[in-house]
UniProtKB/TrEMBL annotation:
GO molecular function: asparagine-tRNA ligase activity
Assembly notes: Homodimer.
Transport is among the record's keywords: no
EC number(s) stated in the UniProt entry for this protein: 6.1.1.22
UniProt family annotation: Belongs to the class-II aminoacyl-tRNA synthetase family.
Matches recorded under InterPro entries: Aa-tRNA-synt_II, aa-tRNA-synth_II, aa-tRNA-synth_II/BPL/LPL, Asn-tRNA-ligase, Asp/Asn-tRNA-synth_IIb, NA-bd_OB-fold, NA-bd_OB_tRNA
Name of the protein: Asparagine--tRNA ligase
Domain Aminoacyl-transfer RNA synthetases class-II family profile: 136-454
PROSITE patterns according to UniProt: AA_TRNA_LIGASE_II (PS50862)
Organism whose genome encodes this protein: Hymenobacter artigasi
Compartments (UniProt record): Cytoplasm
GN (gene name): asnS
């Protein structure tokens, strides 16, 4: 019987010693002397490595010449209690097979630390670093926790389309999807591009949000969520924006703004707690390496109620703040991230949920407040991040909704299907969008959103 491969994670946790094991992974380093060689292996199952000890009498130097940094190896041997410090167990190697050698001179991941900027240029190899291994494992854990949370709370996962025929939400910042020739598109009689000849017979784009379709599903299934890729061609070259990112959008029939805030707060706290409970080793590494306050911040967010206040109250606080802002604040202007971060990091020192924004700066579908000036919007603001969630109670009244659409020049004929939910059995409902990468950014303590997705897309960059 051939021996089954064990992961490094399994071996490090094993109490079952003095047995034959087989491990496969990539060499992180090899060192030693003329009597013994130590081969340090990582296989991605954990941030930790296992040490294989190869005695020179069994492994003359030429048998190990390809066992260098980055090489893929299979090592067979006996799992034993380690003689050395720093690890509980190690492998006394009996066989070392090089599955794939790596040219040591050319291998881009050398022992000395490499900048995160440089690693972005070699994003195809960066998952092999401790940092990106940790980030990717945490990203996975958070995605799993999202599904688990919603499943446990009676939400259904709905797959909304990625190619959309309406540009109601994202006019101006959408990526066009077309099969027409770029240099010689068919023209209509008036000289404009004839989209009736395009693949779908009309103009189509990549979605900026699954919300509108999510609302349709919520008005049938009650509680739903989407979790899929979204695309924004906004030219925001910031550390918090990507052109392709993943968004989680729960939508709940019969919920009003208050319940929407309760859901957002409980959801975020649950996700942070899940990461603390399940990603301890990776978080400890990031805390040590990048941000000594990371763990304390995660615990603080998980355990303390968020501050809730209205946009109007926030503007008062900002106007009387001692701090000088680059952008002045006045009732009616959208808050910039410097304002959001002042509220969260300086004033309240905890996450903030801002509600009831002026209708002029929010989307057409948000429910109008009784004063006619503000809407039932809610933004959740996080330390170090700014906006992590944007959401609202939706306008369920057909007349008020179509009036808002007309005022904001949203073409109603494109959204007939959306308006039907307000014609047939309309009801209060509310939801929000959580940018998945902003969540991963917060939980990992990384400082640039390009470092929390495997292959980031941003202006002038679509490598890999
Ligand atoms: P911002 O003001 O930061 O651009 P937004 O108001 O455009 O955000 P929404 O349209 O409300 O954001 O989208 C919901 C959530 O999606 C945001 O709270 C944020 O977490 C995330 N998000 C929005 N745009 C991006 C982006 N370009 N890259 C990554 N995440 C994003
Ligand atoms: Mg935006």
């Amino acid at each position: 019987m051939s021996l089954k491969r064990s992961t490094v994670k399994e071996l490090l946790a094993s109490q079952d010693l003095d047995r034959e094991v087989l491990v496969k992974g990539w060499v992180r380093s090899r060192r030693g002397n003329k009597y013994v060689q130590f081969i340090i292996v990582n296989d991605g199952s954990t941030i930790h490595t296992i040490q294989a000890v190869a005695a020179a009498e069994n492994f003359p130097e030429e048998t190990l010449k390809d066992v260098g940094n980055g090489a893929a190896v299979a090592i067979r041997g006996t799992l034993v209690a380690s003689q050395g410090k720093g690890q509980a167990v190690e492998i006394q190697a009996t066989e070392v097979i090089v599955l794939g050698a790596a040219d040591a001179e050319a291998y881009p991941l050398q022992k000395k630390a490499t900048s995160l900027e440089h690693l972005r240029d070699i994003a195809h190899l960066r998952p092999r670093t401790n940092t990106f291994g940790a980030v990717l494992r945490i990203r996975h854990a958070l995605a799993f926790a999202v599904h688990q949370y919603f499943n446990d709370h009676g939400f259904y996962y709905v797959h909304t389309p990625i190619i959309t025929g309406s540009d109601a939400e994202g006019a101006g910042q959408m990526f066009r999807v077309t099969t027409l020739s770029a240099d010689k598109p068919p023209l209509a009689e008036d000289g404009s591009v004839d989209y009736t000849q395009d693949f779908f017979g009309k103009q189509t784009n990549l979605t900026v949000s699954g919300q509108l379709e999510g609302e349709l599903a919520a008005m049938a299934l009650g509680s739903i969520y989407t979790f899929g890729p979204t695309f924004r061609a906004e030219n925001s070259n910031t550390a918090r924006h990507l052109a392709e990112f993943w968004m989680i959008e729960p939508e709940v029939a019969f919920n009003e703004l208050e319940e929407n805030m309760d859901l957002a707060e409980d959801f975020l706290q649950s996700l942070v707690k899940y990461a603390l409970a399940n990603c301890a080793d990776d978080l400890a590494f990031l805390n040590e390496q990048y941000d000594k306050e990371l763990l304390a911040r995660l615990h603080s967010v998980a355990d303390n109620a968020f501050q809730r206040l209205t946009y109007t109250e926030a503007v008062e606080i900002l106007k009387s703040a001692k701090q000088k802002f680059e952008f002045p604040v006045d009732w009616g202007t959208d808050l910039q991230s410097e304002h959001e971060r002042y509220l969260v990091e300086k004033h309240f020192k905890k996450p903030v949920i801002l509600t009831n924004y002026p209708k002029e700066i929010k989307a057409f579908y948000m429910k109008l407040d009784d004063d006619g000036r503000t809407v039932r919007a809610m933004d959740v603001l996080f330390p170090g991040i700014g906006e992590i969630i944007g959401g609202s109670q939706r306008e369920e009244d057909y007349t008020k909704l179509t009036t808002r659409m007309a005022e904001m020049n949203v073409p109603a004929h494109d959204l007939d299907w959306y308006l039907d939910t307000r014609r047939f059995g309309t009801a209060p409902h509310a939801g929000f969008g959580l940018g998945f990468e902003r969540l991963v950014l917060f939980v990992t303590g990384m400082s640039n959103i390009r470092d929390v997705i495997p292959f980031p897309r941003y202006p002038k960059n679509a490598a890999f």
